Amino acid sequence: MSIPDLEALHALGPAQQPTYPDKGAVDAAVARLRTMPPLVFAGECDDLTAKIAAVTRGEAFLLQGGDCAETFAGVTADNVRNKLRVLLQMAVVLTYAASVPVVKVGRLAGQYAKPRSSDFETRDGVTLPAYRGDAVNGFDFTSEARIPDPQRLVDVYNSSAATLNLVRAFVTGGYADLRQVHTWNTDFVRESPVGQQYEAMANEIERALTFMKAIGADPDEFHRVDFHSSHEALVLEYEHALTRIDSRTDLPYDVSGHFVWIGERTRQLDNAHVELLSHIRNPIGVKLGPTTTPDDALALAAKLNPQNEPGRLTFITRFGAGRIRDGLPNLVEKVTAAGVEVAWVCDPMHGNTFEASSGYKTRRFDDVIDEVQGFFDVHRSLGTWPGGIHVELTGDDVTECVGGGEELLEVDLGHRYESVCDPRLNRVQSLELAFLVAEMLRK
Ligand code: PEP
Ligand code: MN
To answer: Whose atoms come closest to the Cα of 111: which ligand?
Structure first.
């Protein structure tokens, strides 16, 4: 199967692309990227497809999470470990409390490019091009920083490689060993009520592990986890340069990450993103907002998964807490009636963003929970499987979303607001979410 060349994709008039001032520099960066080794193997992508097929069948639950936007400065050992740690904690809560296998996917090692609702940003009467993620331009509010620089795409590759290298070392080198279940619960989170709840669960798990060991059972699964990377496939130069023909199968894979998705703003059927992702063999996702019609979803499924293979396609719905109960049923009903194989995942973040009076972009923890509850209610009433959650989170105790057990208020947002894009759940809020979702799964 051949893939369209970059020029052909650009001829489709893709949305949300950087306007590079220097075409020669773009060609040089793309040429460099084409020589770089794959970040992931095609066989690993196939393994993830098989796991998401289990989600599609209602036999597993997908946990996908990480920053809204990774930054180059954020590629530090502490930062990567903290994100991995909260995802491992959430996964163990979901697995243990709900007795369901959890497919773990980080929104990391490639999540550097952002679609924006406006091409410009104005501060104090000064208007500059919007920040489009470290993949494209700088966050500093200066005209120099905001010029798109294609060399950044090579930096994305290197930062992703460094992140993935550390993640792989952590998950196979002992850190993700279930016997570390207590170790993940350190520092500030341990003292919180949800940290105590986790501690009690970890004690139970430890007792179970001791018992298993005593009877001579010590399977490999106790010592390592499968963990996958994902990001929005947005900048065509980058994703195209990392699309390679797999030597085993002769089929194209985007080897920049295991799972890639198309955002709400770039999912037009005839656009370049849908075209490119229709050719690659990775498991893929599409974000679906409240304006999505059943016909849109069916057309996307026909184009992106013409063989109707389970595991290939995930629909990530992001309706907002106020709209999911009215809007989602029709979509799920029609897609299901058409026999489309898809994993349904809830992004309870992007339909619930608002600006606090202080000017910070934020989300209410209660709205996040309410959207996930609505997602479960809709799927339960239709007899379909609420297959997973896609969340923006961090392993640190930032103050970006309001509410939760710590009862963060709008006036607290300034204490530690570090996101360069959308507000993330902090570690305590993320763990609370995991326990609440485990409850929903159990019912
Ligand atoms: C995102 O995931 O950060 C994002 C921009 O989402 P959406 O495409 O759903 O708006
Ligand atoms: Mn976001």
So the answer is: 1
